[in-house]
Amino acid sequence: MILSEADTKAKLIDPSLHSGGWTGDLVHREETAQGIDIVNGKPRRRQRYRADYLLRVRVNINTQPVAVALTEAKASNEPPDKGLEQARRYARLSNVPFIYLSNSAHLSTMIEAV
User: Fold this and answer.
1) Is 89 helix (H, G, I), strand (E, B) or coil?
2) What are the chain's domains?
3) With b meaning 16 or more CB within 10 Å and e meaning fewer, what string describes 46-76?
4) Which of 40, 42, 53, 64 has the most CB atoms around its CB within 10 Å?
5) pTM score > 0.90 for this model?
């Protein structure tokens, strides 16, 4: 049976994250990064990129959680690395050091340090 990207997230990735101890405050779904560049002295918005999951850790109790990884999900009939370039762009914009790519057949097929 082919699982859609939404089914891959709901049936496989979400339960896996929760069983691994990731709580709702440390997992952001469909996080969007958009920065601003200064071009010829004028601000210009960067193109938006959306990561399926942004995983964060709390360094200490007095600070905001810090993003450490993002996960890009794909449908089961697509190769997990189909979203690699998209994930790399988002990781660079967000200063996230690790990328996880997955489909329903391979939950953590690729891990890359950016």
Assistant:
1) helix
2) 5-113 (3.90.1570.30)
3) eeebebbbbbbeeeeeeeeeebebbbbbbbb
4) 53
5) no
